[in-house]
Amino acid sequence: MWDVILNIIYFLLSLTVLVSIHELGHLSMAKLFDVYCEEYSIGFGPKIISIAPKGFTRKGKPRETTFSIRAIPLGGYVAMAGEGMEDEESLKQVPPHRFLQGVAKWKRAIIMVAGVTLNFVLGFLLLFVSVLTTPTHIDNTSTSVNFY
To answer: Which of 9, 18, 54, 92 is deepest in the core (most CB within 10 A)?
Structure first.
């Protein structure tokens, strides 16, 4: 019984990490291309923890993205301006060039592909660590070399 519960917890944690990394790819590229991101959320449903932005970035811009952890750990999202997930009142001060539709198409494509790319990088890193940490045994007794 406990094995089943633990396996479900491991699955949910793995899925949460995978989705968080995926959404972090979208967020990082959106920030790089100056797309307004209202919220980065891990999970769905009611908010458990929410960290509101404070202060300024190194470039002197005010911080704007709220980071949230929500009750249902089966996904996550990045609420970018122009994706339809934002509150209308909060977008009145956002200039049109900061919407997802306001950036060049090649930048939009990079933003969308960034999530899958980080999932690929995560898989590669996990495979690499797995290969490096897996013990191997080489049996030299069964091979013989004859020199004539």
So the answer is: 18
